[in-house]
Each structure stands twice: as structure tokens, then as C-alpha cells.
Amino acid sequence: MEPSYILQIHSGSFQNAHTDFRQIKNKVENILTKKKIKAVIFGWHLNQSLNQSILDFFHSKNIACYFWLPVLSEIDLIKESKTITNYTGQKGQNVQVIEDESFSFLCPTDLRNYNHVCDLYQEYISKLDFDGIFLDKIRYPSFANGYEEGFGCFCESCENEYKKYGIDLDYLKDLFMKHDDKLLDGQYDEYGRYIFKDATVDLFYQTRAHIITEFIGNLCDYFHSQDLKVGLDIYAPFFAYHCGQNIYELSKKADFLKPMFYRFTTAPAGMQYEYDAYKQYFKNSSYFDLAPISLTSLEKQCHFLKKAKCDVYPGIEINPIEHICSTNKERFIENKTFFTKYFDSLVCCWNCLLMNKDIKESL
Ligand SMILES: [Zn+2]
To answer: Global pTM?
Structure first.
């Protein structure tokens, strides 16, 4: 069956517009006449008149609009935020892989960081007639931010939270320092959670996921109270839990999930890229040996998503970008054919303005 599509459009960073209304209209207008478009996700530039024009355009075609809002990153560029502290006590580094996009991460137990998201919504978005909000960067940094950051936040408030759950931090940090295989050894359960064999490591990962679910779950409640639907950007299932995302628990709070099945991206969230960034620190270990972008692995990952309590729309790459995303028509068609076996709707990621002609004709 022909899928319906959700179009994701990057309008710019908080501070800089990367496009204008005319460009967006020109790029998508003929897709709208030919394909079934379920919704549009755009952001995260904050200019109200730009956002109003885009909204009016899609609403005139009866297409629902979600504002794309980064949560635990990017906001530090416009509001004084608390960044994460890694386990060695160092403050988070700013990793810049894609121009004008920050990959520095914020502490998820800090109330001020939470309030910034609501304040930003109230200041810039609440007066516009959005149908929903799409929350992005709802996780800990991955190993793409470096080994030390890959384990998340160890500020005083986060350490207190870990201690509350009985985690032996000295033991854990010793494993980090030794690059111990216990940090890899385990297996997936039927929900896609990775159950570590070592009890302390497992408790640590459970606690991280709990912290993220609470932070994001509260935001879902907040946005629902504003009469908005909520979509969540999550990692591909094989790695979501490693970044603090418990897919099943998050699915109880959201209206839809968009797992980033980025098979051909060599930047954060790229599946092979993230896998390699993690495994490189455990060179001699045979634990966690996967081929995450293979169709066999994808099948298993789709199976995890079947447990979700909300809709799931897989995100697939449609924007070839030199040195960053090597998708093409054949790869797009392979993805489309594969994912439509499991799902009715696909998200065109992550920026439809960069969709090439070949892929556009293959939608
Ligand atoms: Zn923290």
C-alpha cells in the first residue's frame, strides 16, 4: 500500500533562519498535490511571521502542523542553561558536526532546564495555531560526543538521583575508566530495552531512562494541557535505550514516536555512526556485535516498536548531504519498501528542503 507521509522541514536554528516561506512553498507544493501528506513538522526558527505564513499555507490544505522544538540541547544558545557534567567532572563539550546546530547537551534533572522549554513555548509559539509539538533531542549525549559524555550527567543533582536508587558510583566510574566489557555485555528484551548482565550497570541505565521519561513525560503533560498533540524524536530502537530512551514508557506519554532510522547518515543519530562511535572504545570485545543497518536487524527493531502504546512513524532519510548523508533513490526505495511492510506512514527526514528530484519522484 502507498504510505502517507509526514514532511520534516528545517526552517533554521533559534537565531538564524535558513530559508523563507517562498522556498518552502516552492519545494513542497507539487508533493502536496500528488501524495497523501499526514502532517508537517517544521522548526525551530522562532520568527513569528515566518511561522505564521507556513502555518497558514499548510492549514489551507488541511495539513496538521507540529512545531519542531529541541529540548535538551540548542536552548543553551538563547537561555542560560545548565550543561551536563561528565563522570570525570568536566563540563560538556560543544560538538559541532552540522553547521549552526549545537550538539551540546543539558542536564535532565535541572528544573531550570525544564522551565526553559515551557517558557520558550509561551514566548514564541503559544500565540500561533499549531496542532502539536515535536520534541527533539530528548536524550543524553551519545558516544558521538566522546566517551566521557556518552555516560551522561554526573552533576551533584544527577549523582544524588543515582545514589537514591542505590547505585555504587565508585564501582561504576571504575568500570568507565577501565573501558570494562561489563559496559557492553547484555541482551535486548522484547521491548527493546538492553538488559545489562552487571547489576550496577543495569540499574544505572534503568535510572537514566527513568530520569528522561520523567522529564519528557512531564513535558508531554504540559503540552497536552495546552491542547497540543506531542510527537517525540527517538533514536533507532537498537540504540535508544543506550541514550536514555525507554521507547515503551515514552510511548505511553506521547501521541506518536518518530524513530530515526538513519541508515546512511555519518553524523549524530546515524545508526552505523553511533554504533561505531560506541564500539571503538571497546576494541577487543565481542559483546554488542551488531549490524544495525542490516535488514535483519531492522526487522528486530521494528518488532520492538510493535509494543508501543502510541502511533509510530519511522523516520527515513530523504536529504542527501555530502559527507553527512549518503542516501539516494535506490536506498530510499529500499527503505520505503521495507518500512511500509510494518507502518502506514513515513516521516521524510530530516529536511525536505534538501530532498533531491530522484527521491521526490520516488515518494
Ligand atoms: Zn545533571
So the answer is: 0.97
